[in-house]
Amino acid sequence: MIVKGQKIARIYSNDRGLKDASFLLNEGEIIALAGGNGAGKSTLIRLLTGQEKPTSGQLEWGSEQSVNYMPDDVDFPLTLSAEEIINLLGSLKKVGQAEQETVLKRVGLWEERKQTVRHYSKGMRQRLNLAQALLGPSNFLLLDEPTNGLDPYWVAELKKMVLEQKELGKTVLFSTHLLSFAQELAEEVLLLHQGNIITQGNLEHVLRENDCKNLEELFIMKIQNNL
Ligand SMILES: Nc1ncnc2c1ncn2[C@@H]1O[C@H](COP(=O)(O)OP(=O)(O)OP(=O)(O)O)[C@@H](O)[C@H]1O
């Protein structure tokens, strides 16, 4: 077990957030946290990273978890280059030059590594964000809206990178509102709507159980039932 949520909630003063979420994440799985805007995906991820404290409920962690995290909104210093940022984070994470180089090459920023972030496009900044999450040892990778700003080539590369991480034995949880992306990649799915988990489990199993041909059909059916 990686982590178990036991009726975990984070309710903000406006009564929104994440409500009584119970779930179990197992080792070595690719898990999609899917749902629309304001569904509670980032809130759940922030609870998992410890950036948010639950208003009720708890998380029970398996032993020796080490988490790498790709936030959905990171502002890298505009005056630093990708190389400097990865170097700085590399020294904090005790990762040597060779791995730093591999990671920058993997996200396609090696050629532009000496340019400052100011000169990067949105997609390049997002790839730098991905690079920092790939850097250093972890067994649990949390990616919040990793496709944001990526073009089709890099979305395809992102899929490959997630599968590579799985091959290395890691658990990968990513949030998305792109249901086709979740469908293509995930083994397990947590479908969120207005702060509630409306469906969870093995993707093939939940589709079969609900007689749906894909996640989009399931999502529409579930939210219509919730209205
Ligand atoms: N700091 C906050 N203060 C008040 N309300 C918040 C706060 N953070 C999130 N919320 C509310 O909690 C709900 C869930 O937000 P969250 O950011 O987790 O959704 P999300 O699924 O990540 O959405 P999106 O896909 O739009 O990023 C939303 O209704 C949002 O307005």
TrEMBL record:
Listed InterPro entries: AAA+_ATPase (IPR003593), ABC_transporter-like_ATP-bd (IPR003439), ABC_transporter-like_CS (IPR017871), ABC_Transporter_VariousFunc (IPR051782), P-loop_NTPase (IPR027417)
Keywords assigned by UniProt, alphabetized: ATP-binding, Nucleotide-binding, Transport
SUPFAM superfamilies in UniProt: P-loop containing nucleoside triphosphate hydrolases
Domain of life (superkingdom): Bacteria
Domain ABC transporter: 3-219
GO MF: ATP binding; ATP hydrolysis activity
A Pfam family hit: ABC_tran
CDD domains hit by this protein: ABC_DR_subfamily_A (cd03230)
Protein name: ABC-2 type transport system ATP-binding protein
Organism whose genome encodes this protein: Psychrobacillus insolitus
Lineage: Bacteria, Bacillati, Bacillota, Bacilli, Bacillales
